Amino acid sequence: MPVNKTTKFARTLQKYYLRKGNKIIFSNKMTLNQLAFSMWEKLGYKEIDASVLSRVISGERLFTQRQLNVFCSILKIKKQKALYLKEALLLDIYKKYNLEINHYFLVDLPTEKILKKIAEYRWSGDYGISNELTDILLDRFRSLKTKMLFSPYSRKFFDTYGKILLEKCYNNMLLSPNKVVYHEKIVTYELREIGEILKKKNFIGLSYFVEGEAYYIAEKYDRSFPIIYNALDLIKDQNTRIEAVRVAILNTAYLNLEKKYKEITALAAKIFNYHKILLSPTLSFIEGLGRAQGILKMQEALNTIEEAEEIYKKSKSEEVFRLIQFDRSRLEILKRTKQKDKNYFEKVGKRGLNLAENYGYYRYITKIREMMNKTI
């Protein structure tokens, strides 16, 4: 089992095992099979086995951040040495995904390029890759935040830290509804902490957005709406703001607040009139608007979803997630407006569910199944 010489992580791992004949013995005296089994247990009986561990050692694949943490814990690797392993893993992951970032100079912190890459992986169906990259970045930023408080690069560091947290927030939103609130509480706390450090209301607004969206996903609309409403005047980035507006509009629909619905749709029109909004938040907003119209039993609801899908097709977008989102909204509109075409409902449901299952969007798997079981 020769080590792939181009894999820095595999070379760094060699310090923690010896070969004795055909066996590999790790620094804690475990064999490869024993270590793989112990890691499997600590990872919740999933993610790894002896063949996976063997391929990691040979340089044929990489650990995830979580797998590496468990590996270091079982072998009782000291913090500083564990950091070297994390650095090696990080460099290999960036190489694998064609991301060129120098982490040894703080002036070269991750830029819009890597954040865009994380978003592209998420929306194109590679949720696992997106989440892994985000967690790796967050792990590094969290380890440096105390040191960076008094650095001349402090503002740039915390500004980028906040943007990475927002990507983590978007990843969390694809989890099952019962997990979202718990995971977003961590992001909310960190965003507010950054807002206080930088004295920037924008980050406070983002924390409200994250918290409000989490309650919305958990279907606690009465808790979500006032939090999201407070975020609207604080968020400076108009692309993120239109995402918050989307959630606010959906909340007003579920709560049947028609006056607030009209007020917030007017705000959305103003944002689109005065600012150039990117494709992804534009699609997200139109889809949300269509669903809100359906909840309020407006006749134009399905046409609004068709408008969003037409923009999607013309743009040649690769955001597979949007197709799932469109079908999920079609199902709710059909259900709310009591349209009787059972075959069409079943066709839309199966199409959306198939995509959600293929790409691992658990939140949408749960919701689509729930609507289909109640209606079919």
Write the layout of secondary structure elements.
Layout: H1 8-13, E1 17-20, E2 23-26, H2 32-42, H3 50-58, H4 65-74, H5 79-96, H6 112-123, H7 127-148, H8 154-172, H9 177-198, H10 201-217, H11 221-231, H12 238-254, H13 258-274, H14 279-295, H15 301-315, H16 320-336, H17 342-359, H18 362-375
Antiparallel strand pairs: 1-2
What labels would you give this structure?
single chain, 376 residues, mainly alpha, two-stranded antiparallel ribbon, 18 helices, 2% strand
At a glance:
72% of the residues lie in helices and 2% in strands.
Number of strands: 2
Shape by Cα distribution? globular
> Beta-strand percentage?
under 5%
SS content category? mainly alpha
Structural notes for this entry:
By secondary structure, the protein is an all-alpha fold. The protein contains 18 helices and 2 strands. Strands 1-2 form a two-stranded antiparallel ribbon.
